[in-house]
Write a sequence for this structure.
């Protein structure tokens, strides 16, 4: 993945901070210099870099860590927050019927992204039509038509027509019943008048809800200029950074885009239609820093008042894979605060999720809502049944249902939920790093940075 060297050097720095016995102004200066070097190497804009490290130094010397937080961890938090400032807030493309126009220079990944977006909206249950408004590139029509066919989405193009405005006008008519219309435009090798004019005209014709600027991660700093000019011409509403899977220093593109103050919606991570990720700045940064979702973790540690002993016991059960209904009952008792399971799950570092571990937030949300019902049901189970849920057959379900006054469907739902939770927990089993990290989260206040970082490359 792009930014790999950025990631490893930033982790080295964080590790150094975590390992230092105290923080003084010299340490801060050193850290600041190091961050500067790392950012510049990742092609982040010089001005932005200097501003960031200046703020870092100022905050590190003036602000005090919240009670219970180590100075070292506090510095890491400041770095995290400041880096997040560059990436901007998370903003998602709305899932609704709309027209989207893609703009960008030659070969940046517009047509590919059009396909990826089509797939994205199709998966959300919306009908999609791709519109071939690139009349310049050889075989542009065929490329988009092929993509449409592969994805089984609608397509509109006119192979012989040389006026993209005409094509778009006809397309809108022809695809009027289609919910999401995606207009692929042509690129140029530089920002010339002709391109700008064309973009302007197409925009006027299709009146898009979104104008997405597609830019290749290898473009680095030049991205800033492209974004500015196209923004003036077409009013960019969002960005797709393609080819983040390459060896480019994506920091340039990312930070340059920050200047137009429009969100990065997606990053492209490969040539295939499924190689696109919703861009979540926090998660992206946390991954780079190797921290999981630091913010959720900190919040979690602060808000959960779970005693260390109880937490460790619970954690061990959770992660051991030997997980029965009794444990689930106990966990629910301890995690009785609303939202806590979901937040815990959200806080896990995605990159460390073992393959196949699918922690569905809905499952946990529902579990919380149904908590009371389930507890009532479990109160009607025998000790043996709680210990060995596999014992629970149809006639036992009947008995439990009668005893608890809840219907059989609820008893079955509880058992299903238990099985799904057990499966998830089992998948996490054996991930030592995760285990250790989570345990640390339960120790209140201190979010155990050293442990988190110590094995982050495993
Ligand atoms: N590795 C990788 N390759 C990509 C990605 N997105 C696009 N590509 C490749 O980049 C090349 C150009 O992509 P296109 O989608 O044709 O780019 P375009 O902006 O439509 O190009 P023009 O129509 O010529 O202006 C193709 O070979 C794509 O397969 C990505 O996220 N990762
Ligand atoms: Mg194209």
């Amino acid at each position: 993945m792009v930014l790999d060297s950025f990631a490893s050097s930033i982790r080295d720095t964080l590790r150094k901070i975590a390992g230092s016995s105290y923080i003084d102004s010299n340490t801060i200066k050193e850290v600041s210099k190091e961050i500067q070097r790392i950012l510049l190497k990742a092609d982040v804009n010089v001005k932005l870099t200097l501003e960031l490290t200046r703020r870092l130094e100022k905050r590190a010397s003036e602000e005090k860590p919240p009670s219970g937080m180590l100075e070292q961890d506090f510095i890491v938090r400041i770095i995290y927050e400041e880096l997040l400032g560059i990436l901007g807030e998370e903003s998602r493309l709305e899932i609704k019927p709309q027209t989207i126009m893609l703009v960008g220079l030659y070969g940046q990944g517009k047509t590919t992204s059009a396909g990826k977006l089509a797939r994205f909206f199709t998966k959300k249950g919306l009908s999609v039509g791709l519109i071939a408004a690139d009349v310049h590139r050889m075989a542009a029509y065929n490329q988009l038509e092929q993509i449409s066919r592969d994805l089984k989405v609608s397509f509109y193009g006119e192979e012989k027509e040389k006026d993209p405005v005409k094509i778009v006008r006809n397309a809108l008519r022809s695809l009027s019943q289609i919910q999401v219309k995606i207009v692929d435009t042509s690129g140029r090798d530089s920002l010339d008048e002709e391109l700008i004019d064309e973009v302007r005209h197409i925009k006027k014709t299709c009146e898009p809800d979104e104008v997405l600027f597609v830019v290749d991660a290898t473009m680095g700093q030049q991205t800033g200029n492209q974004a500015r000019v196209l923004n003036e011409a077409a009013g960019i509403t969002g960005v797709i950074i393609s080819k983040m899977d390459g060896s480019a220093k994506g920091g340039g593109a990312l930070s340059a885009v920050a200047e137009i103050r429009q969100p990065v919606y997606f990053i492209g991570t490969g040539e295939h239609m499924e190689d696109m990720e919703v861009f979540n700045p926090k998660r992206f940064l946390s991954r780079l820093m190797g921290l999981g979702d630091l913010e959720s973790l900190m919040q979690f540690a602060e808000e959960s008042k779970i005693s260390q002993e109880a937490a460790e016991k619970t954690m061990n059960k959770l992660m051991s894979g030997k997980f029965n209904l009794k444990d689930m009952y106990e966990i629910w008792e301890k995690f009785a605060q609303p939202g806590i399971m979901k937040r815990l799950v959200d806080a896990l570092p995605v990159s460390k999720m073992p393959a196949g571990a699918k922690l569905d937030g809905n499952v946990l949300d529902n579990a919380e809502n149904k908590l009371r019902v389930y507890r009532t049901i479990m109160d009607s189970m025998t000790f043996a049944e709680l210990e060995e849920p596999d014992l629970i057959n149809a006639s036992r379900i009947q008995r439990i249902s009668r005893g608890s006054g809840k219907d059989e469907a609820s008893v079955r739902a509880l058992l299903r939920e238990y099985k799904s939770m057990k499966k998830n927990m089992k998948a996490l089993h054996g991930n030592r790093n995760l285990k250790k990290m989570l345990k640390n989260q339960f120790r209140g206040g201190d979010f155990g940075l050293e442990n988190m970082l110590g094995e982050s490359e495993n």
About this structure: Confidence is low (pLDDT under 50) at residues 293-308, 347-361, 441-458. Residues 110-111, 134, 137, 140, 184 surround magnesium ion (ligand 2) (CB under 6 Å). The chain has three domains: 4-87, 98-279, 294-454. The first helix runs from residue 4 to 19.
